[in-house]
Design goal:
This protein is of the alpha/beta class and 227 residues long. It has a single domain, classed as Rossmann fold (3-Layer(aba) Sandwich). It is 48% helix and 10% strand. It is built from eight helices and five strands, in the order H-E-H-E-H-E-H-H-E-H-E-H-H. Helix 2 packs parallel to helix 3, helix 2 packs across helix 7 and helix 5 packs across helix 6. Bound molecules: iron/sulfur cluster. The site of iron/sulfur cluster (SF4) has 10 residues, from helix 5 and helix 8.
Length: 227
Amino acid sequence: MNNVNYQKELDKITAVIEEGRINRPKVLLHACCAPCSSYCMEYLREFFDITVFYFNPNITSEAEYTKRLDEEIRLIGIYNDQVTRYREAGLQPDACDMKVTDNTGLIKIIRGDYIPGQFSERVKGYEDCPERGARCHICYELRIAETFKIAREAGIEYVATTLTLSPLKDAQKINEIGYRLGEGSGDVKWLPSDFKKREGYKRSIELSAEFGLYRQNYCGCVYSKRE
Ligand code: SF4
């Protein structure tokens, strides 16, 4: 089966927003960490009102969970400060070649609780699967399903995830899971993506360097740390 280009699927939706055929939508963006969020937020904030949902019960320890969360909050603060300065004084950010426009939105965050048992219970029997395999598919689904639940409760139209940025993640599988979960989620729709397609991963490295973001050297779970 041919792989779908999910960046092009996202382009179709952003084109409709740009043409003003639908009102600027809200998206609940599941975020795994600040480095991956950096590009995804820079890109999506031109089209959507973003609420980030930080929810990652796969992470090895509470200290690591909090460290990644704190960086996420710090990054959102930097982005929102850029928008505030632009709106108040017309100032463009100094950072990289980043631009703020009249469309650039402020970003909110919802902090998910750290309940590691939610992950360890679900991946029992799959511990030895290699990265990108069945264990990871369960991990993607756990996090995306919770994001749909929160989006339904909050009345947010779209759900997306930063997980498609990483070259180590299976973007085809992530999008298949997202569409499947979206089918049973009433008015909440899946926002397809493959954020790495337009040099998104490279851009995330530039932004991480610019803002001095903490970049962990493993995906998140104890098995990825061992690998
Ligand atoms: S390697 Fe990453 S995506 Fe896969 S199970 Fe571990 S934390 Fe989840």
